[in-house]
Amino acid sequence: MEIKEANGKLGVLVVGIGGAVATTMITGTLAARKGLAKPIGSIAEMAKMRVKSGEEKLIKDIVPIANLNDIVFGGWDIFPENAYNAALCAEVLKEKDLNAVKDELEAIVPMPAAFDHTWAKRLNGTYVKDSANRAEMIEQIRQDIRNFKAANNCDRVTVLWSASTEIYIPLSDEHMSLAALEKAIAENKTDVISPSMCYAYASIAEGCPFVMGAPNLCLDTPAMWEFSKKMQVPIAGKDFKSGQTLMKTVLAPMFKTRMLGVNGWFSTNILGNRDGAVLDDPDNFKTKEVSKLSVIENIFEPEKNPDLYGDVYHKVRINYYPPRKDNKEAWDNIDIFGWMGYPMEIKVNFLCRDSILAAPIALDLVLFCDLAQRAGMYGTQYWLSFFLKSPMHEFNEEPVHDLFQQWRMVKQTIREMIGEKEPNYLD
Amino acid sequence: MEIKEANGKLGVLVVGIGGAVATTMITGTLAARKGLAKPIGSIAEMAKMRVKSGEEKLIKDIVPIANLNDIVFGGWDIFPENAYNAALCAEVLKEKDLNAVKDELEAIVPMPAAFDHTWAKRLNGTYVKDSANRAEMIEQIRQDIRNFKAANNCDRVTVLWSASTEIYIPLSDEHMSLAALEKAIAENKTDVISPSMCYAYASIAEGCPFVMGAPNLCLDTPAMWEFSKKMQVPIAGKDFKSGQTLMKTVLAPMFKTRMLGVNGWFSTNILGNRDGAVLDDPDNFKTKEVSKLSVIENIFEPEKNPDLYGDVYHKVRINYYPPRKDNKEAWDNIDIFGWMGYPMEIKVNFLCRDSILAAPIALDLVLFCDLAQRAGMYGTQYWLSFFLKSPMHEFNEEPVHDLFQQWRMVKQTIREMIGEKEPNYLD
Amino acid sequence: MEIKEANGKLGVLVVGIGGAVATTMITGTLAARKGLAKPIGSIAEMAKMRVKSGEEKLIKDIVPIANLNDIVFGGWDIFPENAYNAALCAEVLKEKDLNAVKDELEAIVPMPAAFDHTWAKRLNGTYVKDSANRAEMIEQIRQDIRNFKAANNCDRVTVLWSASTEIYIPLSDEHMSLAALEKAIAENKTDVISPSMCYAYASIAEGCPFVMGAPNLCLDTPAMWEFSKKMQVPIAGKDFKSGQTLMKTVLAPMFKTRMLGVNGWFSTNILGNRDGAVLDDPDNFKTKEVSKLSVIENIFEPEKNPDLYGDVYHKVRINYYPPRKDNKEAWDNIDIFGWMGYPMEIKVNFLCRDSILAAPIALDLVLFCDLAQRAGMYGTQYWLSFFLKSPMHEFNEEPVHDLFQQWRMVKQTIREMIGEKEPNYLD
Amino acid sequence: MEIKEANGKLGVLVVGIGGAVATTMITGTLAARKGLAKPIGSIAEMAKMRVKSGEEKLIKDIVPIANLNDIVFGGWDIFPENAYNAALCAEVLKEKDLNAVKDELEAIVPMPAAFDHTWAKRLNGTYVKDSANRAEMIEQIRQDIRNFKAANNCDRVTVLWSASTEIYIPLSDEHMSLAALEKAIAENKTDVISPSMCYAYASIAEGCPFVMGAPNLCLDTPAMWEFSKKMQVPIAGKDFKSGQTLMKTVLAPMFKTRMLGVNGWFSTNILGNRDGAVLDDPDNFKTKEVSKLSVIENIFEPEKNPDLYGDVYHKVRINYYPPRKDNKEAWDNIDIFGWMGYPMEIKVNFLCRDSILAAPIALDLVLFCDLAQRAGMYGTQYWLSFFLKSPMHEFNEEPVHDLFQQWRMVKQTIREMIGEKEPNYLD
Predict the structure, then answer these.
(1) Which residue of A302, B334, C266, C373 sits 20 to 30 Å from the alpha carbon of C314, by its own alpha carbon?
(2) Is A425 a residue whose pLDDT tops 60?
(3) Which domain holds residue B198?
(4) Contact B315 D321 (CB under 8 A)
């Protein structure tokens, strides 16, 4: 496989650039450039893997990942605040850390967002595009991308959705082929064409990789698969695998590996950031719930292991709880059973920081999609499932949820890029 | 590799046969034979793996594991109660479950144990051998094994240490070669030759595989490695990986895979069974502590990842707490950090049942050691690290602690037994 | 105050006699009679208080509480099972404990229940009265009470609602006076006259104290207050204060006493019994939620302590989770703040058993209401707030929620019954 | 009772003024004076109580408590840093909060401490008095007090021990009378006369109230009781009741009030501040352990309630865990039982901040001792038990541990000061 070098500037256009995840990702990247902070949690920047020689090398020394110094950030938001003020408001990072890169953050000012209140009723954006219809909305986004690329002299651009969860909609006929999708856009079917689809369509049309960080139905449609292949653009989604689901995708494989049965898994979350406010709407929550619920059934394969997983009661709750702010907290109760069917319980209380966990994931997805494009890999990037709560898959395939299997997929793909084999079964 | 069929009876001689783990393992095995309970948690009995054809098959359909119906249980204890009364007293299993196999349990009566109070001061056994010295102790055990084998018409015997943790001793010159060990036995050096070493020596001398379920210094010595190879006997140890450590060996790999840093890991345990009473003695606790502490450092490799794991404060506490009985409970607090060094916390509260988790592990170690012997594999069984808190390893090697790497070792070994290759990188 | 002795039989008629709480209460009472178990948790049976002399005496030695031996149990249910079979099905008590009083339990067979599916949509009772209208329903219940009393030669009868939570309805004009209530009954207004009101009305009409153990709008109406005074009958309600709310009514007073501020209180519950199934219906949950939410605001008095409690975000969730059965589990996260406003967090995980906690409360409410009637105290029994999640109060009064204040009310009332004063301020 | 007005300056001399508790208390007091923060958690400053008229009034409007503006802070430490630098190092408060009162903090410079390494082996103070013997040590402290009072023009001085826990010593003959104590001082018996006793003796000799905030054997001796009465000085101790014990003294009364039995109570703590380092020494831990263990037995009165509390297994552990810094964290597991003896469990995880909880307690003890002195109350201040883990009591009395009883003692004492009676039993 031939991979183009990462020459020139890489534009990173973030939808929801004023949000907590985006401002945290940007601040950390700017700080890392200046040597003020390590990009902890970033696989592209910090992880090593073993190469054929047996040596462990940094992934970025194995494949040509874009240099952080070459990134130019931009994006859209429904509020006009620059990244510094938006980050202050998000209350994720300490003022001291923001001030260290204040000038650069202040220079990042959003473009008005393409927005439709129907898809996120708890949000009242004031800084939105005036679009007559979906086709115009798409054209406006495309123009934004082109303008940004030219103004910043970018060699390449990747677009990242780091905005809110949209309301739940099922897959419908309009999403089943590119032709159907384009017809629905032309007919301005606003109930099946979400704003996030407009961003994705625009991005792909401009030849830019697109990453879906929320659980929205967007990239995971035959229409987008077709379009991304046609345009030779990598796409990756969906929903950053940050906290509770990350835990699930290591604990569930452990139970299964150890042949321990599971009766029930109750997961509750409290969070108080903007994401929590949006998810307080049942329609938006449903989108998230579907994304979160799929995980463990897929790992347990109840049909193959009916004695152990034939009757798992899995429930996920998300509660808007303002005192917690961005510090999302998860409490899981897991009812397991062992030898002779005797029950045991595990409680996991994860006091996490949503944006701290999500920021390096967002950055990695951008960097790896850019790499994939230079390597000529387009369409759905299965190998990036590692970062995603609901990895995309074609209908006839099963997603891989097990974190350690996903990690082997990452390593295997990188080996294939450089034409190597796995060194031995224990890597 | 040629593997002998599992014909004839398999004697399983348990040291500490009246303990909670042993009686739970035996009761469950008897119940499984009668179809009253599934052997949940047993890899040998229930786990599947993918074979070359892509098909998933039960491991016991791939390699010739001994049939549960062919097992004859026996063993030693420091109390004379039969297995039924001992199990009642352990309060692990419901009376109803014990009664279902009462006759068979009552028929299992221990032989007097080889015991030395100095090595477990909290135990006051009443049913112990009168041995003039260590050499005689070994000879008595060997005679017991021979008698049992003959009386029960066993084709093969495996010996399993499921008794208490002995006091901590460091590796000393006496353990460094078979000659030195035999000299120390001859000289009756009771401070470096523990009772568990007598059982191990006797077992190996009789050609029987030996499994060390406690953290005792016993099998993990050059002397025993040499002896087991000389006698062509498989050995496996040490310390069943049941609850808290099991969690650690999946959570620590998760942090590392995700490049999340760790500042501290505080683990506390409360338990009220006989094991808890023994560990209330600081000398015995130290043996356990050393076993439990090694785990995460090995996984984190701080020297390779100083930014993330260069300063992990790891503390393990075990508290004797009678109200909890056998229902060992663990509470872990883990201090992690992510993007830009921001801290997060995870608390895991595992309300487990020590013997329920340990019983299938004990059975699996026995069954797989017996298999190994028939396959001509002798000496340390690295591939059984999956079941062990402190996997044995030669001095120039690193143990593997990551549960999922260990699981791949199990599967890889089974594949080698039948001359297959791994089907694909995602198994 | 003159108190009649507790001579003769006391009939205890339980609505929902086949439920988990009722069968647990009955089994424990029967076991206590036989000396097989202590009535742990019962104030009437086990609590002591200090009398004027300074001596501590059992409450039942201070005032004439009915003897457990004089109780005759009966009641109604929507399923025809006798109390033994119902208790088996509830899976609260061990079979061994049920078998110890099996004959007596089997002899307790319910009468068909007055039931209206609209008020509890998740229940599908098969053993219900055929009542043309609410007036007939009431008359049938009254006839049941009279029959039971005669058949069992009871001196007195108390009726206890231990059945499910009904759907939420607001207080309406029909509940504002006895005349209005009777008119609504006559007009068969089934949307404002719940089945529980029919039981309460019938009970009061028959001169029997009535206890409301669920959060239903029933006794807490001017109509019932008027009726109970007119008929000289004690009434007590509502909603047994068993687990999570019990904790709240000691923790909230602690924060307030210590002048610690509170930002948020998130309470979640998982339970899998019939009560949980009923509460899975949003209409029924609302009734419970209103009952549970009122507690802490009343204790904190935010209007008097705006700096500390002016902005408490309080959220209560109840989740139907079948694996947990009757073992209701609560997880609370409490966000507090102290000196200079610095935040701290408390997490409480209560692994309780709903019926084990509720059974002695139910028994105590019955015994104390019977005592009150003999002491000539009628209408709302404020002093029994100690046992109740939503203590009834007239509109111009504030309920008392603080457990220790409630306990002082109990003791003060008992002192008044026997004409004593509080011995000193530290009792 | 006649109470002198709080005229003039109040000197507050803190032993361990550079510690986390002291610097937090001082910073918050300075901030409160400037209106920058509320003195949250302070009873003297914020709590109300009901007076005879039924009205609720601030305690400081009922009795003449010293005005925060009249306080002058000073004290001793084993390190020479001023309060600003010490507070920075303690890492309890945000830099922003310290900077708001930076000038005043910097002006607070400690006097060299009276110190004896034997009593706190984990501390290596560099800024200590050179005292030939205990008598000289006392005289040096007295001189410090006199100098401070004169230099700052103080009307009154209170001395507060906010330094570390000393090693455990039992009560011995030397502590049994003032004469014996003075003889031991004269004979320089350094193994029974601790540094904290020297501070207490010096303080009382100077007519200054003394508060013991650590669990040291110091004030709780007949010698000190005698001396404080002779000198007409109030004394209060011992050990601030901040986090875990605060919880215990509300939960234990709840169990008892509800007649719920208790089998076991396991309490573990992790903390990483200087206090934690000191307590890592078993001799110092023992002092703390004895203080912490006494609490629940006293509340449960097992001899009066053998069925419920006759066999409570109570264990307390404190673990030095540097990653936690001052944010002490407690995890309690409580095993309770109810109706028919069925077991339940409560887990409490308190993520607290030691100094944030302790600071207002320290301030309150100072302010109330100063008030007591002006009211002519001297010797042991039982009524301040509310603030203390191990309330002092004469040998023939029982301490009161129940927080709500303690709170009533506070209010009752204040009422007595102003000659009022309790308004009604529900206050």
Answers:
(1) B334
(2) no
(3) 9-240+356-417
(4) yes
Same structural domain for residues B71 and B204?
Answer: yes
Task: Identify whether D309 is part of a domain.
Answer: yes
Tens of pLDDT, residue by residue over B163-187, are 989 998 999 999 999 999 999 999 9
Angstrom CA distances, B129 to B136, B190, B213, B217, C389, stand at: 10, 15, 22, 22, 63
Mark residue A156 as left, alpha or beta (left: phi above 0; alpha: psi -120 to 50; beta: remaining): beta
Report CB contact under 8 Å: D41, C260: yes
What is the pLDDT, as a whole number, of residue B73? 98
Does D220 lie in the same domain as D94? yes
Same domain assignment for residues B329 and B406: no
**CA–CA separation, C340 and B310 (whole Å):** 35
ipTM: 0.92
N- to C-terminal Cα separation, chain D: 23
Distance CA C294, CA C298 (A): 7
User: Distance between CA C13 and CA B422 in Å, rounded?
Assistant: 69
Closest listed residue to residue A249, CA positions, set A404, A35, A52, A418: A404
Q: What is the pLDDT of residues B24-36, one digit of tens each?
A: 999 999 999 999 9
Cα C261 to Cα C305: distance, rounded to the nearest angstrom: 9
Q: What is the band of C266 on the pLDDT scale with cuts at 50, 70, 90? A: very high
The helix or strand, by DSSP H or E, that contains position B271, with its residue range, turns out to be: strand B261-271
Taking an 8 Å cut-off on Cβ atoms, the answer to whether B313 and D322 are in contact is: yes
8 Å CB contact of C313 and A322: yes
For B181-196, b/e burial (b = at least 16 CB within 10 A) is: beebbeeeeeebbbbb
- What residues have CB less than 8 Å from C150, skipping those under 6 apart? none
Q: Which of A42, A341, A347 sits opposite B40 (nearest CB)?
A: A341
Task: Work out the number of other CB atoms within 10 angstroms of the CB of residue A36.
Answer: 14
* C221 and C269 fall within a common domain: no
Whether residue C286 is contained in a domain is answered as yes
Contact C403 D340 (CB under 8 A): no
Residue B3 lies in a domain: no
Please report, for residues A290, A296, A301, A395, C422, the alpha-carbon distance to residue A399 in angstroms, rounded to integers and kept in the order given.
14, 11, 12, 10, 71
What span, in angstroms and rounded, lies between the C-alpha atoms of D426 and A362? Answer: 58
Percent of chain A with pLDDT over 70: 99
Closest CA to D130 of D113, D148, D111: D113
C110 vs B270: CA distance, rounded Å: 45
What is the structure's pLDDT at A422?
Answer: 66
Q: What does the pLDDT read at residue D41? A: 94
| Residue C148 in contact with partner chain A when CB distance is under 8 A | no
Domain end residue (candidates: D353, D372, D405)? D353
**Of B335, B353, B371, which residue constitutes the final position of a domain?**
B353
Q: What is the mean pLDDT of residues A185-201?
A: 97
Domains identified in chain B, total number:
2
Question: In which element (H, E) is residue B252 found?
Answer: helix B244-257
Task: Spell out a b/e string for D381-420, using b for 16 or more CB atoms within 10 Å of the CB, else e.
Answer: bbbbbbbbbbbbeeeeeebbbbbbbbbbbbbbbbbebeeb
Q: Are the beta carbons of B285 and B238 closer than 8 angstroms?
A: no
Co-location of D130 and D274 in the same domain: no
Residue B222: inside a domain, yes or no? yes
Structure confidence at residue C424 (pLDDT): 58
Closest chain C CA to residue A312: C323
Distance CA D400, CA D392 (A): 9
CATH of the domain at B36: 3.40.50.720
Q: What is the pLDDT of residue D423?
A: 63
Using the Cβ of A48 and the Cβ atoms of chain B, whether some distance falls under 8 Å is answered with yes
Question: How far apart are the C-alpha atoms of C82 and A22, rounded to whole Å?
Answer: 62
Same domain membership, residue C231 and residue C333: no
* Contact assessment for residue D193 and residue D201, using Cβ atoms and an 8 Å cutoff: no
Residues C407 and C318 in one domain: no
CATH number for position D333: 3.30.360.10
